[in-house]
Amino acid sequence: PEFVYERKNEFTKPQTTVLPVVVHQLRMKTKPCDNTFAATLLNVPSNPVLSQTPTLDGKRTSELMKCIDPSSQYDEEWDDKVPCPPSMNGTSFCPEGYFRHTKKVYFHGAPVYAKVIR
Q1: Distant-in-sequence, close-in-space partners of 24: CB < 8 Å, separation ≥ 6
Q2: Could you please report the per-residue DSSP string of 67-102?
Q3: Nearest CA to 115 among 19, 18, 48, 24?
Q4: Cα separation of 67 and 46, whole Å?
C-alpha cells in the first residue's frame, strides 16, 4: 500500500536540531565539451584590452567549466581533484598534489560525497 503521511501535531514555532545538516550528491564523470555551448565558451580567447575586469576576462590557467557524462557515475575515492599550489604539495592537505575535499561513502548502495554544513 502507498504511504500516506498523517500529521499528528501542528508545529507553529521554529524547529531546531541537535545534529548538523549533511548534504550529499552523486557525481558524474567528466567528458570533453565537444560541439556544445560550453565548448564555444571555453574557446573564447581572453581580451587584454579589458584590463579593468581581469577576473572576468584575464588569462585562464584552467578550464572555466567541465562537461559531465550523465551516463557514467563518478566512483573515485575522493571528490573532484583540485590541484594544490606547489608550496603545499606533500603536506597533509595535499599529500599527492591534489586537495582532498570529500571522501566517498555509500548511501543506499550508491557512492556519494557527503559534506557537513555548519
Answers
A1: 105, 107, 112, 113, 114, 115
A2: EEEEEEE---SBSS-EEPPGGGTTSSS-TTSEE---
A3: 24
A4: 21
- Of the pLDDT bands very low, low, confident and very high (cuts 50, 70, 90), residue 55 is low
**Of 73, 72, 82, whose CA–CA distance to 102 is shortest?**
82
**What is the rounded CA–CA span in Å between residue 55 and residue 41?**
15
- The amino acid sitting at 58 is G
SS3 state of residue 50: coil
pTM exceeds 0.85 for this model: no
In DSSP terms, which residues pair with 73 in a beta bridge? 28
